[in-house]
Amino acid sequence: MRSGRIEILGVPIDDVTEPEALARAAAMIEAGGPHQICTVNPEFIMEARRNPAFRAVLQASDLNTPDGFGVLLAARWLGTPLRGRVTGVELTQGLAQLAAARGYRIFFLGAGPGVAEAAAAVLRGRWPGLQVAGCYAGSPAPECDEQQRQIITAARPDILLVAYGHPRQELWIARNQPFLRVPLAMGVGGTFDYLAGRVPRAPQMLRQLGLEWAFRLVVQPVRWRRIIDAVPAFLLAVLWQGRRSWRDS
After folding, report:
1. First and final C-alpha spacing in the chain
2. Between these two residues, 170 and 219, which has the higher pLDDT value?
């Protein structure tokens, strides 16, 4: 386990602040590819317990940021507190600002038809110097990999943002990065939808209170299975791990 990295239910998570995560991302880009960043929330951790391939990706990732209030609570309960959250939405915006300042090119892959283009337009409106290498809805299906690799390779991005939802986006990146060798690739889940205004984001006060999951349940009730996985099931698993750790110490 590298310095500054903890482990929750077998998943490594880096104790980084947002500025530190962006500094490490910039270093990855300058070093050249391929690198992968994962923004880990409770749903990631629970999926990794069931999915060995996904767990292997998270264990091999160059940077796993703590995305989710539940991750912070779990880390504190286990005696390895983290300094704060680094969410996919904030990290995406930070990367866009960094890219605009340094001339990096970003490729937007995934989400529904037209959503990546809308998200890219929003970011370019905020940072006019942003260079958009390309936008493509694509598919996480392996049979589409070759075509998408050709499109992305021709676009020559420095940063690749993939919005296929976990674990498909992380598995897609791990599967294709050996061929693409993009300096930095990151799965961003529903970030394009938030940026494009297709899905509302929880108010800041609810995010600070750790109640973003409740807002998502109201706005997107079809997510109820995922919410159960991310809240009560995750907390019970963490409580059990903490109890075992104390008993064995």
Report:
1. 19
2. 170
